[in-house]
Amino acid sequence: MEGLLNNYYETAAIILFGVGFTILLLHNNLIKKIIGMNIMDTAIFLFFIAKGYIEGKEAPIIVNSYKGVNAYINPIPTGLMLTGIVVGVSTTAFALALTIKIYENYGTIELDEILKKGDG
After folding, report:
1. Which of 116, 117, 109, 112 is nearest to 34 (CA)?
2. Can you tell me where the transmembrane regions are (predicted)?
3. What residues have CB less than 8 Å from 75, skipping those under 6 apart?
4. What residues form DSSP beta bridges with 71?
5. CA–CA separation, 47 vs 17, rounded Å?
6. Is residue 60 within a helix (H) or strand (E), and if so which, with residue range?
7. Cut 0.90: pTM above it
8. Are the C-beta atoms of residues 31 and 110 closer than 8 Å to each other?
9. Gap between the Cα atoms of 74 and 79, Å rounded
10. Domain residue extents for the chain
11. Are the C-beta atoms of 89 and 76 separated by less than 8 Å?
12. Residue 8: is it exposed, middle or buried by C-beta count within 10 angstroms (0-12/13-18/19+)?
């Protein structure tokens, strides 16, 4: 239990991922599925950024003097998460564009109704 209280960012990320995954599985509405996917993306970003932060170290921006390698955090996890955010936004935009086309063709964004109309 003490580990959960000390790692509350990671705990929050795991809970957020579970919420997003549950939304993705349990809802038939395509917009709700996209929202669930975005919550899962955000949870992953939070988890990796929390893991990349080290208490007492600074961002790798040299202002007055160089303090040595051990004084700075590793910038790679942050850079990867910025790339992940761009990919997440692009995926969301593509999914929303597909949802609009599905609505234009089927008149609904509920998966059950789309499957019924596709069979008939």
Report:
1. 109
2. 6-27, 34-54, 74-98
3. 59, 60
4. none
5. 10
6. none
7. no
8. no
9. 10
10. 2-119
11. no
12. exposed
Q: Which amino acid is at 55?
A: E
Residue 59 neighbours by CB under 8 Å, 6+ apart: 72, 73, 75
**Residue tagged 């040299």 (tokens):** 62
Task: Per-residue pLDDT tens, the chain, 120 aa: give them.
Answer: 566 667 888 899 999 999 999 999 999 999 999 999 999 999 999 999 888 877 788 778 888 888 877 888 888 888 899 999 999 999 999 999 999 999 999 999 999 998 888 765
Please report where in the chains the tokens 């019924």 appear, as a residue. Answer: 116
User: 35-44: long-range contacts at Cβ-Cβ below 8 A with a sequence spacing of 24 or more?
Assistant: 37/91, 37/92, 37/95, 38/88, 38/92, 40/16, 41/84, 41/88, 42/16, 43/13, 43/14, 43/15, 43/16, 43/17, 44/13, 44/17, 44/84
Question: What stretches of the chain adopt beta strand conformation (E)?
Answer: none
Contact 30, 102 (CB under 8 A): yes
